Amino acid sequence: MYGCTKKGGTAEIINFVLSWTEFFIFEFILIYGGIFIMKLTGADITIKLLEKCGIDVIAGIPGGTNLPLYDSLFKSDIKHVLARHEQGAAFIAQGIARSTGKAAVCFATSGPGATNLLTAIADAKLDSVPIIAITGQVPYSYMGTDSFQEVDIYGLTIPITKHNFLVRSVEQLFHVIPEAFRIAESGRQGPVLVDIPKDIQNTEFEFDEWPDIERFSEKCDFDIDESLIKKAAKMINEAERPILYVGGGITNSDCGKDLHKFAEKNNIPVTSTLMGLGNFPIDNPLFLGMLGMHGARYTNLLLNKADLLLAFGVRFDDRAIGNVNKFCPDAEIIHVDIDDAEIDKIKKSHLSICGDVQSVLNKIITLIEKNERKDWLGYIEDLKREKPMVFPSKDKYFHPINIIKNISGLVEKDTIITTDVGQHQMWTAQAYPITAPRTFLTSGGLGTMGFGLPTAIGAAIANPDKQVVCFSGDGSFLMNIQELATLADLNLNIKIIILNNGHLGLVRQQQQLFYNEHYMASKFITRPDFAKISEGFGIKGYNIKNDDENLMEILKDIFAEDGPVLVNIPIDNFENVFPMIPPGGGISEMVGGE
Amino acid sequence: MKYNENYVIELIVNNHPGVMSHIVGLFSRRAFNLEGILCLRIDEGNTSRMYLLVKNDDRTEQILKQLEKLYDVIRVSLHTEEECPVFNTLH
């Protein structure tokens, strides 16, 4: 517990390990009435608390109202990454958080700095990513007067954060900063915003003790009703055609291995959402791949044959299930999620358990029987052969799916892949062999173009021993292209692959299929020279020509190099992502991909 | 069981200036109907008691779950208008 110093209070021995930072702060410890008192500014207190919460890197941009925080950072061991746009800073924090599972922090100043964070915060909310955005605010006495660079970021972020705080006094920081971490990382993870007025950052405050920081690592204890576990096991044992439908909840609960054992024991086939990819071994015959709008034909068709759907760590997103009324019509549903509000939100379940999916899996597994499920698995094998995922022939080197597959052969298995949003994202999800959780970072819920590059930077910062590849498109890449400067600053080992079709490809595809080929505003008039732009930032850039016969050789050389490289590869402008469920269509009503 | 047209949701919430925004914001962004609000501070001003009048529909349970998720909401309870006639005198 922390406490304001009261005269005559108990003396506390402050047993710091005297790191340089703490040595500096030690200078501020005064002897006052025989007890140790620390006198620090709100900004110093904030930075010190972030250090105590385990933060060693912060991405951000300084400005008028967060300068005191930056002044305190000057004295700290925390490494600062200067982004070139606040959205970039927040996605860098996301790259750290998504690849490690731990909360990461970004800084922005008030007004436009703060509003620039919004997209990335909303993105973190929809994909349950623990980031903490700390914004400067105009002095408290100016608030509400429309002063320079004042914006109600507290009000603006209510709907897009898990929770947010407007700090109204320096004392509150002792509670708010550790609490921000607890909220971001506990239960269903999510973003938290802390808005700190400049005068509070500058206020000096005397105190004698830091709060105890227990970084939230242990899992929430849910009281799981044993009778529900028994019922669920009974339903599984009695089912003839069960399917596991799993998502990001498996990643966040870190229980891919438990899921694997569970599925193997009872021979339950597994399909994954975009967010859940990497949790189940892709070469396992039980794996059905990704379901949904661009899932394989057999996967989507099988779902509607199931008599029991085990929805574990998923939220029945429309991109995953298509039209809800046409999804799994014959199946009973067992829904397990850590967020009670997801249960029965979209699709009514027959049995639901609110809790950590790992503990639920490990409880149910003891009660399920070994079952060969010969008929069901035989049926699945037949359908896999009959309605396979159709990939282009291998000699079409410039087909985006082949480019993606071939690149997977040039990198280490644990390489972290990030994507932007659009056709290249879906091709990557379909074709890249994602073998581990937290190695495929993609904007699933919000679908934010511009996600790929800054998120790759964050992932590379947090995983200095790993390779990072960002698959992007020529539309998406322009949306956070300024972060090439951040990448050049840090010289990280990131390879950027732009699959360039001169269009907003997924928009063009929808116009072709559903809007009578009215290509309105989806074709780019200007085709920038991405290699030249990249070189302009000091990063090696290559423009591949579409008649280059030795594409693979070129790529091999590029991937053998250390450090950042951008590769711009032209692809067929009219290539489509198939199969596709038309918007509003049922999951079995796919077009294309046959 | 008697059909109730409206329900009254009673909340105990932390009392600070942002709480009201969090609660009414939830209703507008999730397109829940909100027919009435009453709110008064209690407990020496640390908390407030809030009554929300909502139409009874199939989303009531979802509303309650979303309210329970809010950080500043301490307690949520559901009443019929008869049990909790706080809005009846205001017509």
UniProtKB/TrEMBL annotation, chain B:
UniProt pathway annotation: Amino-acid biosynthesis; L-valine biosynthesis; L-valine from pyruvate: step 1/4; Amino-acid biosynthesis; L-isoleucine biosynthesis; L-isoleucine from 2-oxobutanoate: step 1/4
Gene Ontology MF term list: acetolactate synthase activity; acetolactate synthase regulator activity
Catalytically driven reaction(s): 2 pyruvate + H(+) = (2S)-2-acetolactate + CO2
Single GO BP term: isoleucine biosynthetic process
Entry keyword Nucleotide-binding: no
Top-level enzyme category: transferase
Enzyme Commission designation: 2.2.1.6
GO cellular component: cytosol
Complexes and interactors: Dimer of large and small chains.
Family: Belongs to the acetolactate synthase small subunit family.
Name listed for the protein in its UniProt record: Acetolactate synthase small subunit
Lineage of the species this protein comes from: Bacteria, Bacillati, Bacillota, Clostridia, Eubacteriales
